[in-house]
Amino acid sequence: MASKKDGKEETTVTIAKTPAELQRMRLDKLMKNPAKPVFIPEGSRDSKMKEPPEFIRNVWGSSAGAGSGDFHVYRGVRRREYARQKFNNEMTVKLTAEEEYHKKVEENKKAAEERTAKKRAKRQKKKQKVKSKKMKDDNKDEDDSSSEEEEEGSDGK
Known about the structure:
Layout: E1 3-5, E2 8-10, H1 19-32, H2 70-156
Antiparallel strand pairs: 1-2
């Protein structure tokens, strides 16, 4: 496609006749230099509506004296205002749903932590009980063995 003539590059322009051809051409262009990083833009996460104007220059009163184009202007303003109100309502619903979700997650974590703490206390209590029983048995065995030694020692004298 490009040939050098006298230090200048000559390019031929090809026009895609179908969308498939256009896509093929774009892919060919991308694949010419695979080492070159491709920029992929991120989509906007949350769109924001334009704020309503602070003041409206065309204030409509009665329809007397209204020009023929004012109705279309009014329709546009009304449409934008309804779209803004709809967006605000949707955002409110979305925020309350997120808030409820986070609240529920926190409650679930708290409940899980309480259950875990209760079970942990029960395990530790059981472990302590077993340990104290074992110590009691060891002390009993030691007492028995020491009393036997004392008896043997007194017999030998």
